[in-house]
Amino acid sequence: MAWFRKEKQKLTAADKRELPSDVFEKCPECGEILYRNRLEQNLWVCPACAHHHRIGAEAYVSLLMDEDGFTETDAELRSGDPLKFRDLKPYPERLKSAERKAGRGDAVITGYGPLDGIDVNLAVMDFSFIGGSMGSVVGEKISRAARRALLQEEGLIVVSASGGARMMEGILSLMQMAKTSVALAQLQEARLPYISILTNPTTGGVTASYAMLGDVNLAEPGALIGFAGPRVIEQTIKQELPEGFQRSEFLLEHGMVDAIVDRRAMKSRVAGYLRHMLGLPRSEVAETA
Amino acid sequence: MMASSPLDFDKNIRELEAQIERLQGLARDGGLDADSEVGTLESKLKDLKKNAYGSLTPIERVQLARHPNRPFTRDYLERTFTDFMEMHGDRLYRNDESILGGWARLEGRTVMVIGHQRGRDMKENLHRNFGMPHPEGYRKALRLMHQADKFGHPIITLIDTPGAYPGLGAEERGQAEAIARNLREMAALRVPTISVVIGEGGSGGALALGVTDRIIMLENAVYSVITPEGCAAILWKTADAKDKAAEALKLTAPDLKALGVVDDVVPEPTGGAHGDWDGVADALRETLARHVRELEAMDRDDRRRARWRKYEALGEWREPAPA
Asked: Which one in A58, A228, B37, B115 has a CA-CA gap of 20 to 30 Å to A157?
């Protein structure tokens, strides 16, 4: 009658590791095992510790824009191979495999539509495409988004996530920093609002161009944001970096970002800043936190 | 000429130069006539130089661009320009010694000159931080550019840096913000602007002085998004592949001219700029004067629009023809 004394099945190490990754996600910050669905509903913010997990570029578009209001632009733009660059692999092969993996042609989505009823132009970078690196396509699409903002007399919002310039495009990738800044100079003179949202990680040439140039710079909590990568700095100064160095909180303390904003409040904060800058009345739905 | 040289490829040249010197010394001391031997060796030396410098590989150009005896910003200020009056400080934090700037004259015309300053030996390099600016260097540069804009004088920048300094203080004080702001503000300037890569143009730290109407390079200067060493370490997983990386990055003046990034290349004397400072400084003066004249002849708004169009066109992308 010992039906209840069922022999305990020991979990082996292998079983533990093979949590079905399409169902569960482990929070790297607090170790909590989370339902993927639940995490997704929570905009990939850990419900236990508020750690901001990486979120897809499309998901960022939908969290900012009003429902069904977003029109994507220039999705067909593809990079050339201006240097005929070949390291261990030819660059066009890297591009193809990145496209298969990321499901898009380069490291940024651009488009326009209403955000809390305000017409804006939006660019969201995709870190999963060659580390969100900026080459000709990223530079061109962000410039076009800025130019459209200029023509339509609307605001521009860029969500950055990038390791920096794409070295397989050599000097032309460096020149995208200049190109995007030229576009922002024109927005500046036209007195149109530009909001930069910095997510984890934003480093190198993207930080040193449009990501730092917002009228308002907003950072997600705990994001790595810097010019040089932490490893490069450690190698240069030959000492360990202090805890929290180059994180959003460090940038806020040093005056480089205006605020740290939880992803779940990002839309209402962006709308709030835009409404102030554009002289619009306060929103019925948006809170200004 | 310093005894030591960072170049691998001119070893034979240096040996032959030493041999000629020895022979001349012997002849002098012994009262002998060695003219014909010296003559033979000197013509051999000329051929050797022509061969070595006529077919420089990209990594050899990188070595030349970093040569400690190449003329630096201050050397051009003393030769290409006159009446230099240095100005210091960003009015915010401190003076950065890795960037020099101030008023000067180019063929008598007042211009603002701003450039990275490297050091020739360890002591100088510590003082100049190896030509790697902190944010305050870029902010000083911007202050001087705005001053030139205010008084309507052309701006000439001389680029010569391994890159912006990657350090704790630099990050704390906003290295990225300082560079980014310079890019945007340089785009907006209303006076003629010219940048010249005189040695190494290292990534964002170089570009922060480089958003200009005209981009000029000296023949053996290099300009790149990343050092060949850094690129090799990341993409080839070994710094030994720096030759290949230098080749792949297309960082030489002729390559960048072909890519449409660089507008003009100033030829260097055979043997490189370090062999003839006055020669290369004169050549630079002529080139700069020509570009200043061309730019000053343009309408102010047209000139700035042309600058914008130049940068808008940079890059290579494909898209389907609009339906």
From this structure: A228
